[in-house]
């Protein structure tokens, strides 16, 4: 029990944008130190309140730990009752508090004079299969943990001296420290370079200069891994790297695949700025049609306080975009969208394009329709809100006012995602590298197919 | 386990002034309901952070409880280790979390199908002697608990129909509900009238229309009660009632007692606005000297951003007060102060009065010097900062620039406080009323004498 | 034309409390300099908008001037038309802009190579008789001007070295600079001492070390001066000095006079905290009754966001005050108030005192009833809102629930104000001092009597 | 003089973003009315202070006027002295106040019983040649005025019923009102359609339903018009229309022209998101090279409070962009930029691309180098800051780290801008339409060539 060093944790939390929560004042109050955990979360399980904000910090008999959790436990209700039955009062509705108390609680404690945190982490992983990527800070160590299914992303970056940020590779330059993040895109902006992913089930111990695999907890025999396919489709920034491939490249392949599955006779290919641009460029190139901009973003759009009357409600879309009508007047337009979830944003855009002179408007969606809820950390509208579950879906083109609308198939998406992974894995297998420990590759497509990677407990 | 009703707790916390934390928005979000706990605390044990804000709300196997705590546990360190040894991760440094987890934890829980909250509260009271006044909310019941020594105040008010707010007494008017507070002065402003104190050791169960004593946990044989005497001297609002007497009356008696102990030949009696006015009026009346105002408050004083230079540092007092020099020019002035803690505020006031024409300035302090730290909830400067522990104290008049300075004696203070309590108690004893359960009356004078009501644990 | 030095004016304005408008940031942006004008005004003529905020700064052919104005011009409408007829576009509704443009405009300008600011100021004073106290800043000079009737206050203070702030008198200590203010009470808090008033009609030129009378513009033959009597009654801080006397002393004399005019058989004298305390002490002393506190202020009252229902509207007063009921239970109470304007604040206080046990409640008001509007800078409720103009006034005691209510007479007020002025003036006249230039002493009692010091123009 | 209706102007101003200045509160306070002027200005002449904010509102003998001004007067100093010589005190340093006072002042006023606002506007236009686009509001009329050189843009839009927003053209649908703006791109978002430009020198009178040309003030014989060419290059939103053409189309033509003037052997064409995209697509199409994205925007970048150390200063660019390295690794890249002003933003981008694997990086700039200050309303860095005036410019490719860098020629820019205007004008001239009143078409290229459209006065 080292009260003093454990007291050294300094916590700052807040709700809202990072730049508001972490301003000059609050940053000054945080210690200048070598070690830290940050967390942003759009709370999925648990109410959106400050108390649910991470990291969770608790003092245990063996010092303070701070825990940051990305994901959502599929057996949270059972774990909750188990802890309360042992007499632990739970102060939040967050499943991340369960993880923290399970780490503090793990018996037997009476004879436990030296804290074995790896044993505690493995016990935790035996209690709950998915989904969680965790950072656990204790004294001068951070443990980075990914659940055995690898449902949520987690990767490691290497801080390198500024002078050496020249892509010479890790062998040539000194390491200044390590960073861990859900998305690799964050590394560049803090002067780090992508090092590697934490593997499904892996427990990594990170200290000032060292990254060390402590263990890899396996999945049940035969279960494939289950990384969330929606990270590729929608959530991740295009420059992020998952499973060895750039998200942008996957999205462009989705566009190419879509061109194969659903070609259309048209004059130009475009997109709604700006997330579907890679798919649109892929589609255009595969079809041999020109890629043309039809809308420009209104950069300074913000909250509007003007009284909402009939006129202005209809103008919602026109507030967000400018129309480059000269670019498509009298032409047949294919619009590539990354996903149609509720169906109420694409409809006024189609109307706007037609009013500005488009001759035909065809919609191609670079992902399959979402039909099922996610219980593993992604906030998806209710089943009733999803357009794919509603009667209008049977005549969707008519409902949204398009000349035609086609979604990418599940198979098309999965193959676009797995194509280069499998190629590389075959290659690696032939080399019998350590990476083969990942086991059978799969992806969680639960929101598209209803097939969840583990049984859900209630 | 009644998940639904326990979910009905709605919590809003914040740091800062009540009017900032509870604004129109936050109040709207709180349920319109019949039951609630509020809490403001200048944190004494535990860091001043949002997480330490009360009430503490935890979910237990038998539903949610919310706990508000006024006071400070004298054996917090031992309780802390005990809980952690049982595997409870503690998320704050607050002793109020210990109380909450002890209520959730109390064994045996395995066979505990029906929660016996009174037994849990009594167990808690056996674990820790003082100091705590507690409100514990569970479903539609609030338990009001005061520690056996009665160190912190707690009293009950009765909401009465507005039309009946005419002092006719409780028998004649309908009761609309109950309120519990540390200070009775808060009742008037919400339309309630003072009903009675919670007695030392008493566990009171409060529901919509009913107030019921469940038990009175006794002190160890022979120990007197130990209500904080500093509430009378300094903290409480003058219109508050403790132990059956108005604080204002106690302060006036202190002034009268001070006139007996330390008379002075002078022309007028005055005070530093505005907390010592009752003592000053009592002193003036007892001495037969006129009560005259010498300073007026500068109502709009606030933070000043002007660069602090030599001139302005010396002007600090002049910023807070205006001088009514015509009222005392050429006169001998007695200034009554309620306490001199550090000695650095009275000194520039004396200087200001002299510069404005006072012939003599005598200081009379209506309480004894503070010499010892408080470990029961009051935030007192460190021993080194207390003027009474410093060498200057031996020639205090000279140090602060007064012609003379005399403090009230501890005996004088205690007798001013206990005079009417004892008179009433004798009267009540002769009537053999229920109130005799209070036991031997005493007061905590630890900060003045170093005699703490219980042994301190570290 | 000295563009460079005139550019050196640095202006910062804002609406709201001084501490919000002048924060660390805005003060840093103001030049560190030897010369400045500040202004706070509760706008009476002209809408309450930032543009109307003073000082008004304009560039003229002879450099920039900044003008701060306290008062309200009685012939603003005529001056407004006159300026617009000359082709000046007026950007605010404030009469202070008229003063500024009249100073810029004064013809003949074509041949005016050297700016004669004193001539311009005298021209301005010939255009408008009252009411204005002005500070006019040009380059390194400030002109302090008071209208010939002296309706608004203006006085000069002397900054003295801190070490010398010991009341030795102005001859013994060095002068560090000069300050000008409406109220002398502000001097103490910035380390200055009261020097003298600006006389009615006086034009004073103030530079770094020098204060010099340039001229005294006389009133029409026979007109007495007309300083606002309401400054004594209500507006000024009690430690301010006007016409050689402390406001506190005038108020105490009003209380004494009220005791002579309207005695009452009672047990104690008290007041509503805190503005009427001097009058209450004067009344109590004259009557030989004890002065006792019956209410204490609730220090932290602020905006309340609680939904206003029947109960809470009735509790308004109870939110502002605590009741010291033990001090007056069963007693006959005289409450001294400084003024009753609308009559809706004293009424619930009387009710509260009765409900808390007062046997009788008598109200004595230390000023006469207000019946007429002010057109010279004081914001007074409309004639219809003034209780003295409403039918309820005929049975006021009954209307507000008091046992009796009596106002001070106009003659009583005037004599309380002028008593010591006249005594001193006789003394000075016999010494033939310079002060005799003030002429016949009078006071503006327009709001009480309807007799305005000058004819009003529309 | 109609005081009442002129009082109906309601003004709200503030500094900062529109959404902060015009929030729900401030909008509620503005009258619901049929007429209004809004203005946003990045102040170029006159200090950036609230007082300089537009519209300027003044009361004149003939009622209130409100004036909004876009532009900067080339003879402001002379006009300033002229007004002050007439006795007008000027309260701001803004040239827009000069315009307002000149409109109020215009003699002869003594006999001027009916205000002839058109005469006043024409007088103003005779006093100052350029640059100004004005909106002048008086009672229920708005006058829209553009200076004879047409230096600043101004155009009129037509509010049409929502149901009719279908591009059927103005003849078929009812007009609901008129709007005037600098840029037509704002029309769509408020439900208006582009109607026409205000011509150089034109005075347009706009009432509820009517748009009427009152006069067109001519330029001196032989002077061509001088619309700011930088609006095309940089300032305007791409969907805006000037002189009958969409800005996006001009920018794409600039890219095409650049491909003709400065081709390069490369593998792909890209851009720095996102203003140069039209030029990049034009360049790519003309060259026959693929258009590929190399950077993605970091959407949530904001102020960063992290202590600026060596590492982080070098990371500035990496904070704004993500690198899509897989898209260009080992390739020769052409980056199209819209302008290089100071040269310090492109340099780290080139470094970033090289470090991420680009084989060659060629820069092509779709506008000529800026070399001269603008005195007509555009805020341009000082001559010393402009890269084109510094020695490094002689070896610019080396300085910024590019393999090559070429700017578009002035002739290339002018022809890209004028190509379709001239084609249309020839066509119109042959039809002898009213539009021929515009006279000889030219553009202000002063910042590129130093040739100002009028002589500059000091």
From TrEMBL, chains A, B, C, D:
GO terms for molecular function: 4 iron, 4 sulfur cluster binding; amidophosphoribosyltransferase activity; metal ion binding. It comes from the Eukaryota. Its cofactor is [4Fe-4S] cluster; Mg(2+). It holds the Pfam family GATase_6. Gene3D superfamilies: 3.40.50.2020, Glutamine Phosphoribosylpyrophosphate, subunit 1, domain 1 (3.60.20.10). SUPFAM superfamilies: N-terminal nucleophile aminohydrolases (Ntn hydrolases) (SSF56235), PRTase-like (SSF53271). Pathway: Purine metabolism; IMP biosynthesis via de novo pathway; N(1)-(5-phospho-D-ribosyl)glycinamide from 5-phospho-alpha-D-ribose 1-diphosphate: step 1/2. It is an enzyme of class 2 (transferase). [4Fe-4S] cluster binds at residues 228, 374, 444, 447. Binds 1 [4Fe-4S] cluster per subunit. Mg(2+) binds at residues 275, 337-338. Its EC number is 2.4.2.14. PROSITE patterns: GATASE_TYPE_2. Residues 1-209 form the Glutamine amidotransferase type-2 domain. Keywords: 4Fe-4S, Glutamine amidotransferase, Glycosyltransferase, Iron, Iron-sulfur, Magnesium, Metal-binding, Purine biosynthesis, Transferase. GO terms for biological process: 'de novo' IMP biosynthetic process; purine nucleobase biosynthetic process. It catalyses: 5-phospho-beta-D-ribosylamine + L-glutamate + diphosphate = 5-phospho-alpha-D-ribose 1-diphosphate + L-glutamine + H2O. In the C-terminal section; belongs to the purine/pyrimidine phosphoribosyltransferase family. Catalyzes the formation of phosphoribosylamine from phosphoribosylpyrophosphate (PRPP) and glutamine. NCBIfam families: purF. This is Amidophosphoribosyltransferase.
């Amino acid at each position: 029990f080292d009260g003093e060093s454990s007291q050294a944790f300094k916590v700052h939390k807040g709700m809202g944008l990072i730049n508001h929560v972490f301003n000059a004042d609050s940053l000054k109050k945080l210690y200048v130190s070598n070690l830290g955990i940050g967390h942003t979360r759009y709370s999925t399980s648990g109410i959106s309140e400050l108390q649910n904000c991470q990291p969770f910090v608790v003092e245990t008999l063996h010092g303070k730990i701070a825990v940051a959790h990305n994901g959502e436990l599929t057996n949270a209700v059972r774990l909750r009752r188990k802890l309360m039955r042992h007499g632990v009062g739970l102060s939040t509705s967050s499943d991340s508090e369960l993880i923290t108390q399970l780490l503090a609680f793990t018996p037997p404690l009476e004879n436990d004079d030296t804290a074995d945190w790896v044993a505690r982490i493995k016990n935790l992983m035996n209690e709950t299969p998915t989904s969680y990527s965790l950072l656990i800070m204790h004294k001068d160590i951070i443990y980075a943990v990914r659940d055995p299914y690898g449902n949520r992303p987690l990767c490691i970056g290497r801080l390198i001296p500024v002078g050496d940020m020249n892509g010479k590779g890790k062998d040539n330059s000194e390491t200044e420290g390590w960073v861990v993040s859900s998305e690799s895109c964050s590394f560049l902006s803090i002067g780090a370079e992508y090092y590697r992913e934490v593997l499904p089930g892996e427990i990594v111990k990170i200290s000032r200069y060292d990254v060390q695999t402590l263990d890899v907890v396996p999945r049940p025999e035969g279960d494939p891994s289950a990384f969330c396919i929606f990270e590729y489709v929608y959530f991740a920034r295009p420059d992020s790297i998952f499973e060895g491939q750039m998200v942008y490249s996957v999205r462009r392949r989705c566009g190419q695949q879509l061109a194969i599955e659903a070609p259309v006779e048209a004059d130009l290919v475009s997109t709604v700025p700006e997330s579907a641009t890679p798919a649109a460029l892929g589609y255009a190139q595969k079809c041999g049609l020109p890629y043309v901009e039809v809308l420009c973003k209104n950069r300074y759009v913000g909250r509007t306080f003007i009284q909402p009357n009939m006129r202005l409600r209809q103008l919602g879309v026109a507030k967000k975009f400018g129309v480059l009508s000269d670019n498509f007047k009298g032409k047949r337009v294919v619009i590539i969208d990354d996903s149609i979830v509720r169906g109420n944003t694409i409809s006024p855009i189609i109307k706007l394009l037609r009013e500005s002179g488009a001759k035909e408007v065809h919609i191609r969606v670079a992902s399959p329709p979402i039909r099922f809820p996610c219980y593993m950390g992604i906030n998806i509208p209710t089943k009733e809100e999803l357009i794919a579950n509603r009667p209008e879906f049977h005549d969707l083109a008519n409902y949204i006012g398009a000349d035609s609308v086609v979604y990418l198939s599940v198979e098309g998406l999965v193959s676009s995602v797995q194509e280069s992974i499998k190629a590389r894995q075959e290659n690696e297998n032939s080399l019998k590298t350590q990476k083969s420990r990942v086991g059978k590759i799969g992806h969680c497509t639960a929101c598209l197919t209803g097939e969840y990677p583990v049984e859900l407990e209630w």
